[in-house]
Design a protein that fits this description.
The chain is of the alpha+beta class. The chain contains 6 helices and 21 strands. It has helices at 186-192, 196-212, 217-222, 234-242, 259-367, 372-379; strands at 2-5, 10-14, 20-24, 27-30, 36-39, 41-45, 49-57, 60-67, 70-74, 79-86, 88-90, 94-102, 105-112, 115-117, 123-125, 128-133, 141-148, 150-152, 156-166, 172-183, 245-256. Strands 12, 13, 15 and 18 form a 4-stranded antiparallel β-sheet that branches. Strand 2 and strand 3 (20-24) form a beta hairpin. Helix 2 runs antiparallel to helix 4 (234-242). The chain is elongated and about 205 Å long.
Length: 396
Amino acid sequence: MPLTIYEGERYLITNTRGVGHVVRGPTRIYIKPSEEFQRLARRSAGPDQYLIIRFRELGQIRIEHRHGPCSEFENPLVHESITVKNAVKLNSNEMLVVYKQEQEFIQRRLVPGPATFVPESNEWFHEFEWHGQDQENIGKLRPGGHQFTKLQMIPSQIYYDVTEVRTNDDILIEIQLMLFYEISDVDKMLNGSTDPIADLINAVASDVISFVSSLSYQDFLRQTELLSDMKTYVQLENRAGKIGCTISNVVYRGYKAPAKLQQVQLNAITSRTNLKIKNELDNMSNEITSFKLTKEMDRLDLKQQVDQLRSEMRHAIDHAAKEQEITLNQMKHQAAIEVEDSLAAHKLEMKRSDKDLEIRFLKELKSLGVDINAYLKGQQETPVAEEIQIHPTTML
């Protein structure tokens, strides 16, 4: 039977004895009736991939990792399997922990990002399995809930609720916290702990229990701010230092108490709130009353000032009117005096003018030969003061 093999293809031809050979295309061959053929699958890896090739050698398996870009035809006579894997891409804040088998020794090395990493055939990654956040309860951590290979080298936080914490007056409460931490020394972390999150929450639980057990419930309520103070978490900081972690802060988020105690507390809070509201309302009422009184006093003061200003204005107007009247009278009197003085001066001038005319008249008379003395003497005779005329009456 003829068989056409195209460019880029390979076929495995086997006979009845199990002996086979690979034929590359492009070509055309004849398949005997005693032979079988099989098209070989081509496995290709891109630039960010690699091939895991498992060779069959003398009853053993040899593994080879081949970085892409590359390709290989999977020959069942030579290969156990060929698998395409993606290279591990690391960001600048990520790190891989890689182990390598060297004969009977195992070496460990850290691969920081950013990088694209392809392991060798005798290398494998550290599989981390830490406590992880429970999706149904944010304050609960589940063992093995966080599985990963890329180690985050940036600050992180976890929510954790410390349960069954008992005060010295036998009140059972739950403390809700938030821890901010960062892995500062990976080697110390790997050597000191298999689950640093478990170590941190156990240490913080120990600190919280030690703190709360020395207080009564009421004292605890008055000192909750100390649960956000790093001085309270001595064991936490000591344990974190031993496993290569740094605790930057612990935040107290609140607490939970039994339902009955919560109800009592709620009632007390409600009573205090109502009392506070009443006091605030009373204070507000007093402030309003005081405000009204103040405004009324201000209004009275303003009215008094306005009345005083009006009185002063009336007084000023009256005084100005009197001053104007006095000034007007003075002006009238002065005008009268000036008129009288003017009239007197005019009369005097008239007399002077008459006197001058009389003197000129007398000089004229004298020039005409008239005896001035006789004339003057005749002028000085006593004039008739009263003239009486008597008329005769007609008798009937």
